Every structure is written in structure tokens, then in C-alpha cells.
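hey m, so remember when u said the C-alpha cells were messed up on ur end? i reran from scratch. heres the input so u can diff it against urs
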Amino acid sequence: MSILVFGHRNPDTDAICSAIAYADYLQQTQRPEAVAACCGTPNKRTEYVLKRAKVPAPRIVMDVRPELSDICNRHPVTASLGEVFYEVYQRMKEHDVRAVPIVDADRRVLGVLSLLQLMDLIFRDDADPLLTRTVKTSLGKVCHILGGNFQYELDPNKLDELMVMVGAMSAGGFTERMQRFPADKLIVVSGDRPTIQLPAIEHGVRALVVTGGYSLSSGLVELAKSRGVAVIQSPFDTATTTMRIKSSQFIDSAVDTGFLPLLGKLPVDEARAKVEKTNEPIFPVINDAGVLIGVISKTDLINPPKQKLILVDHNELSQAVNGAEDADILEVLDHHRVGGGLKSTQPIRFINEPVGSTCTLVARHFRAAGLIPKPGIALCMASGIISDTLYLRSPTTTDVDRDILNWLRGLCEVDLDEYAKEFFEIGSALRNCTPAEVVREDCKEFSEQGIRFSISQIEETGFDLFWDRKEDLRVALEELARRNRLQFAALLVTDVVSNGSLLLLSHESEAWDDINYPCLDRSLYSLPDIVSRKKQLLPLVSQLLAARGQS
């Protein structure tokens, strides 16, 4: 199973670029199975970065709870209608399985056949001697299972319902007994006994099987041709030949068509509830077209393997991909505050440092290991730093960010000054997105003083577009808060030119009376010196909520 390297929900450039770059670093060092992933589509600026860097976008995964397609046996033993007992039994024995799905030529599932149902083909009619000796098969299958050959072949692929008669008694007794049954329903098994073979041929039986490796005489072969009797040579003795003929019957009548198929995209916990009260040995796992993906048993669902995750640019479960709480988190690489909810059953590597960008920490890993990142990966990491530090102008910027960006500058195949200018000019959320998309872009949820809220942040070159869309954005924030059951939702619109921001709220409580920043309109504040959600706005909001909670 892959190790997924994830940024936070509603990912920004630093989240996606740090996931891509850290996965690349891990692939070159101790974790070749690392794969970059994201739980949201890249925004316009990030798309621009990936295009310029010529780096593929990370895999989009919205939920890491294991699905059946993740844990099922993807290389199951199968069988098809028209196969016979002996073929399927040998296959099940070889692979040590107790049930197999029955599929057609397009691998669509038609049923399930268990070992018990398979054995029932041989033993189900023990109480009725006639039914016990009846075999539904074809002469071609009989000859194949015997490992024999035809002395005279006649309609080998025809489906026959045959009654097996063994010529082990006196010729007179055999002949009298044989004549009680329709000739075309009989397959006679005999050793080198012409006194049995001749009356069988004269009766016109469907087939004569000569055992012990013997051949029918040329004269009897000619007689068989004239009477329409197929002749098969068997290398085995009579007892073994008879058993093999019985094992050459088709499996079709034993197949359970009332099986329970499970969709591959079904979460494991939902599948467990579905199969809990059934007695079926296996469950075919299929896609939407009914095509077999794999098989699974109840045992597989008891303690399925957990998805392994590495979190970058966040450490709070409320910001992580859905299902992260049930995953196996191996590492955290972040530059935000330490939040709540993250637990592990064993020690993990947890790196959290006060730098301006997670890409700074990833790039430092490359440099410390003596690895030179490819130009595209270098540009990804530089983009994350440029985005999160507003090209080293944000108060979150540290000397480490400056040092690392200077190192990356020599590895990128672009002029970073010109590139940074293009980066901030392209992909304006206010110009290209709906209000709902704007407030969900780079949106993070927090909990302080028992109050759940979210803060979204976008960067723009000027506020002109904001004033035109202010009321629509307020409505979108109100809907976001209602849908996610938040006390309030906030949008921080940062002007990368003036290094200031506007803060728009969905709802305004008494706590905002103490904000000490100009109120421009209902639930709208001017924050001229605030550009960082992490280092400036979130501590301010936390302080306001704490003060109101104590009053």
C-alpha cells in the first residue's frame, strides 16, 4: 500500500507543493512508496506553478478510509460456466481456496462456487443409485479429464446427460441391465472385454470407454462408427476411470447465483455491516459495471490494514483529509501552531518549526541529505515559500526562509523575481471563482474556547474586485458557516502590494467589539498591517474569544 503525503483540506500552494516535494524526497531516501496526494483541486495559482514546473498534480483523494478495492485480493482464482468439477477442484486445491467467483468472458460475476457446493456435485444423490451415476458433461471433457484419446470421435462438444455403466459383471447380466435404459444416455466403461464391448456397441450407446490403456479392435471400431458410438481410450484402470468420468461433469448446476456482490468503492466499515449476518465464504468485489475487481472474506474485514499518511503543512485533524483519524500517521512536517486531535499508537517523527513555509522545511531536508532537487521540484518548493511569505515580505518570514529560497534560486530554471510577479498576478480568486469557491479556497477550521470557526485567505493585487463582490461573499460565508455548523466563518483578503488585508465575517459577536481595527461596514474590518493568518490573525481571534469568555 502506498504512503500518501497530504497537505490540508482546501489546499493552497504551500500545501500542495510541499506534498509533491516531500514525496519526491522520500522516494529518493527511505520511503520509495510515498505518493503525493491532496484532498481538493489545486487553485489557479497552484495550477500555474505545476505547469511552469512541469510537475504532475498530486493524486486527488477525498477520503482515506480504506475501501474494499484497497484491501481485497486483486488476483483471485476464478472459474467459468462450462468448466468441470475436476478442473475447478484442482485449481482450488492448488491455490488453497475454499470458494471462487464464477465469471464470464468479460469478467462479469455470474455467481460463487464453494468447495462444499462443488463436492455436492459428486455426493448429493447418494440415496438414488441412478442419479449418483448421472453425469452432465461432454465427451470432449471426459476425454480431456481422462488424459485419453478418441478412437472414434462423435460430437465431442455436445452437452450430454449420461449415465455411467461399468461392465464388471457377466456379459449376460450386463446386457440385460443395459437394455433397461435409453442407449443415447449411456456411457459404458469396460476393460479389455469384447463380450461387454460388442453388446454395448450393438445397443448403440453414446460412448464406450476402454480402460487400462487398451484399444478397441479395428473391427469393433468400424462397428462403432456404423452404430454412432464414440470410443475413448483411458490410460487408467476401471475404478479410476469411472471416478474421473464423474469428476468431468459441469459445475453450472452447483453455482450459487444468489451471491452478495460488493462495490469496490464501498468503505470497509460499511461492507462489514453488510456481510455481518451472511454465511457466504467469499464476496466478489466489483466495479460499477459488475466486472470483478477482486474477492474478500469476512476475515479480511476484521482488522484491515490502515492507510499510511504523512501530513505536511498542517497537524490538526480538523484540517486533514477525511478518514485521517482512522489512518496510520507516520510523520508530520509543519510550520503552524500545534492543534488538537492528533494521536498515534507509537512514536512518530513530528517536525514543527516557526518558519514561513513548509516548503522551507522540505528544501532543508534535501540540502541536509546532499540531494539536489530536480529543477521542477526546486521551483515547486520556491513557489511554496513565495506564496506563504508573500515573497519574503510577510512577518512570518525568517532568515531560514531567506537562506533556503536563495539556495533554491540557483536550482530553478526561471528568474524568481519575474516569476513571483507573475505568480501573484495570475489566478485571482475574486476574478475567476464563484463566491462559494472563494470562501472555500485555502479554508482552515479551528476551535478556540469551545467555538468552532474557519478562516479562509486569498491574496489579491488590490481590493477593487472585493468591493464589487462584497455582499455575495458575505452570503457565501454565511452558507459555509451554516453547512459546516460553525459559529462563524471569516475571509481574509490580503493585498500583496500594500501588505494589508480586509477581514469579512459571516457573523459578528460581541467579541469583535474589542478588535481595535477600523470597522468599514457590517462585519467588515480593515487590517492594514496583517497579512498572516497563522502568525497574526489567528492569535488575534484567539485573544478576542478568550477575553470574551472570561468577561
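this time it looks ok to me. The chain has 21 helices and 23 strands. if urs says something different then somethings off w ur setup not the seq
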